[in-house]
Amino acid sequence: MTAPSVPRSAYDQVDGLLYFARMLDKIRLHARGELREDFHGNLGKGADHWCVGFLHVDYETLTHRVLEGGSDEEVLNWCHAKGRSLNDVDRLVWNQFIKKLGWNDFATPRLEVLKTQSGFADRGDIQTMMEYFEVDEGRKP
Question: How much is the pTM?
Answer without folding.
Answer: 0.95
